[in-house]
Write a structure and sequence with these properties.
The complex is a heterodimer of chains A (109) and B (119).
Chain A: E1 3-5, E2 9-13, E3 18-25, E4 32-37, E5 44-49, E6 53-57, E7 60-65, E8 70-75, E9 84-91, E10 97-99, E11 103-108
Parallel strand pairs in A: 2-11
Antiparallel strand pairs in A: 1-3, 3-8, 4-5, 4-9, 6-7, 7-8, 9-10, 9-11
Chain B: E1 4-7, E2 10-13, E3 19-25, E4 31-37, E5 44-51, E6 54-57, E7 64-66, E8 76-78, E9 87-94, E10 109-110, E11 114-118
Parallel strand pairs in B: 2-11
Antiparallel strand pairs in B: 1-3, 3-8, 4-5, 4-9, 5-6, 7-8, 9-10, 9-11
The chains are: A mainly beta (109), B mainly beta (119).
Chain lengths: 109, 119
């Protein structure tokens, strides 16, 4: 079966750095996505990785290792508005997105 | 820009009632999707469409139906509502797709969600 694992909840301090991990087992691989979802709102796109390595976009970076079935989302200089759930999703060989359950990130002052 | 618009935002149904969730997008996207999201769970794909006149079942299609008569609209029909259908429903779109010769990027644009309760 297809499976995506990410921690249920994480806590970090304002101004700090946090890394949210995602491991996956899917039928084929056509890219990995990170979405941000604030409580009561729709998910919004953060990043897309299809090749190994680090993609940096402002305070957010996303890393992928296809051989290990592993990705992480790195958030720097945390702000209170970063409190949200972060969803990892993998596009399989049929170009369907398989979603993880999401990691709820709590930022404390 | 409106993006993806879905209605209603909230609805309470009685068991056995039927209803339609409306979804429309103004970005001329080929792909459209309906997901449900239950607490603590990932998004589950109900149905999707790769273009007008074409629909396919996703992971959890039972109890639902869709149609895609135009590029813009992708309504989701719930027949004989059951408590198990209590959830938050999201419509999404993306494009272009493989048929256009461009790789489907997977970046989805979501509607604001519809919170449905079946009692």
């Amino acid at each position: 079966g297809q499976n995506i694992d990410q921690p249920t909840e994480m806590t970090a301090t304002e101004g700090a750095i946090v890394q949210i991990n995602c491991t996956y087992q899917t039928s084929g691989f056509n890219g990995l996505f990170w979405y941000q979802q604030h409580a009561g709102e729709a998910p919004t796109f953060l990043s897309y990785n299809v090749l190994d390595g680090l993609e940096e976009k402002g305070r957010f970076s996303s890393f992928l290792s296809r051989s290990k079935g592993y990705s992480y989302l790195l958030l720097k200089e945390l702000q209170m508005k970063d409190s949200a759930s972060y969803l990892c999703a993998v596009m399989d060989s049929n170009y369907q997105l398989i979603w993880g359950a999401g990691t709820k990130l709590i930022i404390k002052p | 820009n409106a993006g993806v618009t879905q209605t209603p935002k909230f609805r309470i149904l009685k068991i056995g009632q039927s209803m339609t969730l409306q979804c429309t997008q103004d970005m001329n996207h080929n792909y459209m999707y309906w997901y449900r999201q239950d607490p603590g769970m990932g998004l589950k794909l109900i149905y999707y469409s790769v273009g007008a006149g074409i629909t396919d079942k996703g992971e959890v299609p039972n109890g639902y139906n869709v149609s895609r008569s135009t590029t813009e609209d992708f309504p989701l029909r719930l027949e004989l509502a059951a408590p198990s259908q209590t959830s938050v429903y999201f419509c999404a779109s993306s494009g272009p797709g493989l048929a256009g010769g461009e790789l489907h990027t997977g970046e989805l644009f979501f509607g604001e969600g519809s919170r449905l309760t079946v009692l």
